[in-house]
Write a structure and sequence with these properties.
The protein has 703 residues and is mostly helical. The strands form two sheets. It has a five-stranded parallel β-sheet, sandwiched between helices. Helix 16 packs antiparallel against helix 17 and helix 26 packs antiparallel against helix 27. It is globular and about 95 Å long. InterPro entries: NLR-like, P-loop_NTPase, TPR-like_helical_dom_sf. This is Tetratricopeptide repeat protein.
C-alpha cells in the first residue's frame, strides 16, 4: 500500500492487520491566502488632472471596451516615463464608470504578479482553500485565476501594470484572454513575440504643443506657452520629466523661478549633471538622461534652501526597488544613520511636493518612486556615500523582519520587502554590507516560509543566492545558509528530488567547512531528514534525525526550540515498540517539557502535542490521543484557518481517533470534510486528496 506524508510527517506502513499512512505537519504554518488588500483601486498614486495628447488612443480603447464584454488584449508600450500607466488608468476609470469591474495588478515581478492575480481570483469568488493551495504551489495558480475570470458574472477590465519582464508571464501561462473581460498591459517591451494575439499601441512622448501645456497646467504663472514649449523640447517632451519640472516650478515660493531661468539652468547643467557625478554613460534616447536633467535641478534647490536631507532620502530610496515601500520603514531609528529621524518627515514631504516620489495605498500606506527616476538617481549618486546608504537600507528592512520568524499569522508587509531586499543586493558594492543584506534576505525567506508562502520563500532565497554567490563565494557561510533555505522551500512545494539534491550539496559543504555540530550544518541536516522520510528512506532519515537531535542538544542546549523541534519529530518516526523502548521513553514527556520551557501555544509546543497525539494513536491509547488532537486541532483552526494543511492534518488524525473509539459517524463526517476541502483546494488527483479519500473509503467499508 502506497502512503504519502506531507510536511514534517512520516509514512508508517505495516502488512497484515494494520495499515497506517498518516499525515503530520508542524512548525511552519501559515495563514489565509496572501495578496494585496484590494485590486479594485489602481496603486498609482497621483494621476494627471488633464491627460494631454492621448485622445485618439483613448477613443479607440474606449470604443473597444464599450462594444462588448471582452476578448480583447491591449499592450500599451513605450519608454519609461511616457505615461503608459496614466493612459491605462484613464481607460480603467472609463470602464468602471460604465459598469465593468476594474481589476488592477502590479506585474513588475513574479511575486507581485502571482499575489495580485490570486487576489483577482479571490475577488471573482475563489474560496480560501483553493487560493491557499495555489499560493503554496499545490495547484496551478494561473488556471485557478482564469477559470474564475471566465466564469465572472460581471464583465471586467484587468490592467497588468509595469510588465517590463514579459518572461514572467510564461511561467504558468499567465497571459490569456477571456470573453468576459478586457486585458490591458503596460510595458517597455514592444516586441510582438512577447504579446501573442495582442493589439499593440505605442505611447510616445508628447507633441510640442501638448508638452508645453503640461508645464502650463502644473506651473501656470511661470511663463508663456512658448517658453514652456522650449523647456519641453529640452526635456525630450517626456511626460515624467515634464511632471518633475512642473512640480519644481510650482513649489518655488520664496524665490520663484521663471521658465526662462529654468531653461538656462538646464543649458548650464546639460548632460554633465549625470556623467560628472559618476553615472553610467547614457544614450540620447535613454529616459534616465532626460529625467536626470530635471531632478538634479530640484536636488540643487533642496541644497540651496537648507534641505539636504531630501537629497539623501531620495538617494536612499533609489537603492531600493520602484515598488511600494511601507512608510513605517522610514520612521525607524536606523534611518538616523543617514538622515536625522526628526527631519525625515520634512524630507519626505519635500519629495512628495516635487513629484519625486508618491504615496500609494496597497492595504497600507506606502511610498513609491518611478523606476526611471530611481535608476537615474542611483546612477548619479556619488560613490563616497554608497556604503552608508546601502547599509542603512539593509538595516531598515532588517528591522522590519522578525529576528526569529514564527509560523503565521500572515504579515502583509513581508511580501512587500522582497523586491527591495533583492534590488539592494543588486546595487550593493561593499563586501561587508553585501553579507549583512544577504543575512536579511535569508531571514525574510524564513519569515515568508513560516507564513506558508513557500513560493515567495524559494524565489527570495534562490535569487539572493544567485546575486551574492559570485562576490562572496560558493562556500561562504551565508550563501550556504540561504541555499539551504531554498532547499527547505522546495521540499514544502513537493519538489522532493530538487530539494534532496540541493540539501545534499549544502549539507556536505557545511560538514566539510564547519563540522557536523555547527548550527547551520544541523539546520540543513534537519531539512534533509524531512526529505528522506517523505521519499520512503525511513532508516536514513531516522539516523540523520538522531544525529541532529544529539548535535542540537550539544550546540544549543536541551531546552532550545530547535532541539525540542527535532526531538518532537522523533515521535512521528518511531513504531510502538520503539516508543516504549528505554532510550525513547522520555519522548512521551516532551510536550510537558515544551509547555514548561516555551509556553503552551508556542509553535514547537503545538507541534510536539500534535506528534504526541500521533504517538498515542500508534500505541493504541485512542481516548488519550483523541483528547489531545482535539485540543490541538482547535488551536490550529483558530490560528491558521480550516483549509490550511496543518489544520486538515489534525482533523484527519481526529477522524482516526474517533473511528478507533467506535464513533464511526463522527469519523466519517470529519474525514468527509477533509476530503472535500482537499479536493477544492488541491484538486481531486493530488496525493494528499487521494490518501484522504482512500482512508474515507476504509471508514465507509469498516476495514
Amino acid at each position: 500500500m502506497d502512503g504519502h506524508a506531507e510536511d514534517d510527517g512520516r509514512v508508517f506502513q505495516a502488512s497484515g492487520d494494520q495499515h497506517i499512512h498518516e499525515h503530520h505537519h508542524y512548525g511552519d504554518g501559515g495563514a489565509r491566502p496572501a495578496g494585496p488588500d484590494s485590486v479594485r483601486r489602481p496603486a498609482v498614486g497621483s494621476v494627471p488632472v488633464v491627460l494631454r495628447d492621448r485622445a485618439e488612443v483613448l477613443e479607440r480603447l474606449r470604443a473597444s471596451v464599450a462594444r462588448g464584454p471582452g476578448g480583447e488584449l491591449f499592450v500599451l508600450h513605450g519608454m519609461g516615463g511616457c505615461g503608459k500607466t496614466a493612459v491605462a488608468h484613464s481607460l480603467f476609470q472609463f470602464a468602471t464608470a460604465n459598469g465593468r469591474v476594474g481589476l488592477w495588478v502590479n506585474a513588475s515581478d513574479r511575486a507581485s504578479l502571482r499575489s495580485g492575480m490570486l487576489a483577482v481570483a479571490a475577488d471573482r469568488g475563489a474560496d480560501d482553500g483553493a487560493l491557499l493551495a495555489a499560493r503554496n504551489g499545490l495547484r496551478p495558480a494561473a488556471d485557478l485565476v482564469w477559470d474564475h475570470l471566465d466564469r465572472s458574472a460581471e464583465p471586467w477590465i484587468l490592467v497588468l501594470d509595469n510588465a517590463d519582464d514579459p518572461e514572467i508571464f510564461r511561467d504558468g501561462s499567465w497571459l490569456r484572454t477571456s470573453p468576459r473581460g478586457t486585458v490591458v498591459i503596460t510595458t517597455r517591451r514592444a516586441a510582438a513575440r512577447w504579446w501573442p494575439g495582442a493589439e499593440l499601441q505605442h505611447i510616445g512622448v508628447l507633441p510640442r504643443e501638448d508638452a508645453a501645456q503640461v508645464l502650463c497646467d502644473l506651473a501656470p504663472h511661470s511663463g508663456t506657452v512658448e517658453q514652456a514649449a522650449e523647456i519641453a523640447d529640452r526635456l525630450g517632451r517626456l511626460p515624467l520629466a515634464l511632471t518633475l519640472a512642473g512640480g519644481f516650478l510650482s513649489h518655488q515660493v520664496l524665490d520663484p523661478w521663471t521658465m526662462d531661468a529654468y531653461g538656462r539652468r538646464l543649458d548650464e547643467g546639460g548632460r554633465v549633471d549625470l556623467i560628472d557625478r559618476g553615472a553610467d554613460a547614457l544614450s540620447d534616447e535613454d529616459p534616465r538622461h532626460l529625467v536626470g536633467r530635471t531632478w538634479q535641478l530640484t536636488l540643487d534647490a533642496f541644497e540651496e534652501h537648507g534641505l539636504p536631507e531630501a537629497v539623501v532620502l531620495l538617494r536612499l530610496l533609489a537603492r531600493l526597488a520602484p515598488e511600494p515601500l511601507p512608510l513605517s520603514l522610514l520612521n525607524h531609528p536606523e534611518i538616523g544613520r543617514v538622515v536625522p529621524q526628526a527631519r525625515t518627515e520634512t524630507a519626505l514631504r519635500a519629495l512628495l511636493d516635487q513629484s519625486l516620489t508618491e504615496l500609494v495605498d496597497v492595504g497600507m500606506r506606502c511610498v513609491q518612486g518611478h523606476a526611471v527616476l530611481l535608476d537615474s538617481v542611483a546612477a548619479a549618486t556619488p560613490s563616497r556615500g554608497l556604503d552608508a546608504l546601502d547599509s542603512t537600507a539593509g538595516r531598515l528592512i532588517g528591522a522590519a523582519v522578525p529576528l526569529v520568524p514564527d509560523a503565521g499569522p500572515y504579515d502583509a508587509r513581508l511580501r512587500l520587502f522582497k523586491p527591495h531586499v533583492l534590488a539592494l543586493l543588486k546595487r550593493v558594492t561593499d563586501h561587508t554590507t553585501r553579507a549583512e543584506v544577504l543575512a536579511v534576505a535569508t531571514r525574510l525567506a524564513v519569515a515568508l516560509h513560516r507564513t506558508g508562502d513557500y513560493l515567495s520563500a524559494w524565489e527570495t532565497a534562490r535569487a539572493a543566492a544567485a546575486l551574492t554567490e559570485g562576490a562572496l563565494g560558493a562556500d561562504h557561510r551565508l550563501v550556504l545558509a540561504v541555499r539551504s533555505r531554498a532547499g527547505r522551500a522546495l521540499f514544502r512545494l513537493g519538489r522532493y528530488a530538487e530539494a534532496e539534491s540541493l540539501l545534499n550539496q549544502v549539507h556536505g559543504a557545511q560538514e566539510r567547512l564547519f563540522g557536523t555540530g555547527d548550527p547551520d550544518t544541523l539546520d540543513s541536516a534537519h531539512g534533509r531528514q524531512l526529505v528522506l522520510g517523505n521519499v520512503g528512506r525511513r532508516a536514513e532519515a531516522l539516523t540523520l534525525l538522531r544525529e541532529t537531535v544529539a548535535g542540537r542538544r550539544a550546540a544549543l542546549g536541551p531546552s532550545h526550540p530547535l532541539t525540542l523541534r527535532s526531538r518532537a519529530s522523533l515521535l512521528t518516526m518511531l513504531s510502538a515498540a520503539e516508543l516504549t523502548g528505554g532510550e525513547n521513553a522520555d519522548l512521551l514527556a516532551l510536550p510537558a517539557q515544551c509547555v514548561r520551557d516555551l509556553g503552551p501555544e508556542h509553535t514547537v509546543t503545538l507541534g510536539a502535542r500534535h506528534n504526541y497525539a500521533w504517538a498515542l494513536y500508534v500505541l493504541g491509547r485512542f481516548e488519550a490521543a483523541d483528547e489531545e488532537i482535539r485540543l490541538v486541532a482547535d488551536v490550529y483552526e483558530r490560528r491558521f484557518g480550516p483549509d490550511y494543511p496543518i489544520a486538515l492534518s489534525a482533523q484527519q488524525l481526529l477522524a482516526r481517533t474517533q473511528f478507533a473509539r467506535g464513533r464511526v459517524g463522527s469519523a466519517r463526517e470529519l474525514l468527509g470534510d477533509v476530503v472535500a476541502r482537499r479536493e477544492r483546494g488541491l484538486g481531486a488527483q493530488h496525493p494528499f486528496t487521494i490518501a484522504s479519500r482512500a482512508l474515507l473509503n476504509e471508514f465507509r467499508t469498516g476495514t
